[in-house]
From TrEMBL:
Pfam family, one: Pyr_redox_2
Keywords of this entry: Disulfide bond, FAD, Flavoprotein, NAD, Oxidoreductase, Redox-active center
UniProt name for this protein: FAD-dependent oxidoreductase
Top-rank lineage group of the source organism: Bacteria
One Gene Ontology molecular-function label: dihydrolipoyl dehydrogenase (NADH) activity
A biological-process GO annotation: 2-oxoglutarate metabolic process
Species, as recorded: Savagea serpentis
InterPro entries: Class-I_Pyr_Nuc-Dis_Oxidored (IPR050151), FAD/NAD-bd_sf (IPR036188), FAD/NAD-binding_dom (IPR023753), FAD/NAD-linked_Rdtase_dimer_sf (IPR016156), Pyr_nucl-diS_OxRdtase_dimer (IPR004099), Pyr_OxRdtase_I_AS (IPR012999)
Length: 458
């Protein structure tokens, strides 16, 4: 490796080309900054290549495969249909390639200097970048870390070896297992559970008590849907995992032993700092996450951090929003106040959205109402009557404080739900609007009307 003698100066250097990194790079360039984006692999990060896009792609595959069973109700008869896992993986790769090229084109459009290499700290206000056989030195006005987080299996699953899939690994396997144990009730785990079940895998979910992130009524309905789909759900605070004759054995608290071909876990995330040689700067940490303040500043001058490495809730949705706010901070523009609301979504079947106050957080000031999708004409037409729309308001002020839905259309309505909360909407704001008919949106109005015992279809 040849070490360059010159030290180059850059205005803003971003390390990491995932959703947080490339969003920040583009926004800074739009605001007139000279931007350098360093990425050692492909732009798009784990979201595009391991997490968001693969999981949502296979959720779509599973949904379409399951929908074939409903075609007979519309008089459509199809015989001899088959599902090919390998063909689906090839299509995913095409989509990922297209999206990667799209991000690269955007960087080029905005004159962002993109360096393919491995960055590391080499001193105060200085980084080195290993580019093949070269090593170049850079100083900066602003350095932003957006290197994401690595995913590791929990130590209790070490005995399982290759029979334990972690994070996005599950979507790259050569063939589907005949049976799978899902550990956890986090979004990734639940999406894997429903996807795999609909693709013909026998699924068990093993989750700790009180680990569900969504509204309690959503959990109840999702468990009911699991039962309908013959997904076995177990609750256990402790478990023991072993490998017996190439089969996974998981022993839970009541002494029951669950067997399967493999086990999936979303794993434990840790900020990606090792390759950066970050120990020499002594960053302040919050457990396995890099600590930042409300301005995304780390404990080191002129160094910011975004995305998964900071441990902030909200995933890529929050990372993208944070990137735009940080761009305004760096260039000295007025910064929009951070929204306290972000939608928790599940690409299960049926899908889920949960925003704001949950039923388990309600007190005597609140009132809740939910309308089953069974009352919706369009849901009947589409054969998607499972689920409901739920609204939580303040009885005195009529402010809407929580919106939740499980059912077809939930993902599309997530933006509407979030905007209602951000705009401090009241019951009358929903009742005033006229919605298309027939549509799922009508169920939102019905849920609010039901607070006043005025729902037409209830």
């Amino acid at each position: 490796m040849v070490v360059g003698e010159l030290v180059e100066r850059r205005q803003s250097i971003i390390i990491g080309g995932g959703p947080a990194g490339y969003t920040l790079a583009i926004r800074l360039a739009q605001l007139g900054q000279q931007v350098t984006l360093v990425e050692k692999a492909q732009v798009g990060g784990s979201c595009l290549h391991e997490g968001c896009i693969p999981s949502k792609f296979f959720a779509k595959v599973a949904k379409e495969w399951a929908s074939l069973q409903k075609l007979a109700m519309y008089g459509i008869q199809i015989e001899g249909q088959t599902f090919q896992w390998e063909s689906a993986q090839q299509q995913l790769q095409k989509i990922q390639s297209q999206l990667t090229k799209g991000v690269e084109a955007l960087c080029q459009k905005h004159d962002i200097e993109k360096i393919e290499g491995t960055a590391m700290f080499s001193g105060e206000n200085r980084i080195g970048i290993e580019i093949g056989e070269r090593f170049e030195l850079y100083e900066y006005d602003h350095l932003i870390l957006a290197t994401g987080a690595s995913v590791e299996r929990e130590s209790i699953f070490e005995p399982l070896g290759a029979h334990c899939f972690v994070g996005g690994d599950i979507y790259g396997i050569d063939k589907l297992p005949s049976s799978l144990i899902i550990y956890g009730a986090d979004p990734y785990a639940l999406e894997v559970a429903f996807t795999m079940k609909q693709l013909g895998v026998y699924v068990h979910i093993v989750a700790e008590p009180d680990s569900f992130m969504y509204d309690s009524s959503i959990e109840k309905e999702l468990r009911r849907q699991s039962k309908k789909k013959k997904i076995k759900w177990h609750t256990s605070e402790q478990l023991e995992a072993t490998l017996v004759e190439e089969r996974v054995h998981v022993k839970i608290e009541d002494g029951v032993i669950i067997e399967a071909d493999a086990l999936y876990t979303s794993g434990v995330k840790r900020a990606n700092l090792h390759s950066l040689n970050a120990t020499r700067l002594n960053f302040q940490m919050n457990g396995d996450d890099l600590s930042v303040n409300e301005r995304y500043e780390t404990s080191q001058n002129h160094i910011y951090a975004l995305g998964e490495m900071t441990g902030r809730e909200g995933g890529a949705s929050r990372a993208i929003a944070d990137a735009k706010r940080l761009a305004s901070i760096i260039v000295g523009e007025e910064v929009l106040e951070e929204s306290p609301f972000f939608p928790l979504i599940l690409h299960t079947n049926p899908p889920v959205v949960s925003v704001g106050l949950r039923e388990q957080e309600m007190d005597e000031r609140h009132i809740a109402s939910q309308i089953p999708l069974m009352t919706s004409g369009i849901a009947k037409v589409n054969g998607t009557t499972d689920g409901f729309v739920k609204v939580i308001t303040n009885k005195e002020t009529t402010l809407i404080e929580g919106l939740h839905m499980i059912g077809e259309g939930a993902i599309e309505l997530s933006a509407h739900f979030t905007q209602l909360l951000d705009m401090v909407a009241k019951e009358e704001d929903v009742l005033y609007s006229v919605q298309a008919h027939p549509s799922i949106q009508e169920s939102v109005i019905e849920a609010v009307e039901n607070l006043r015992n005025l729902a037409i279809h209830q």
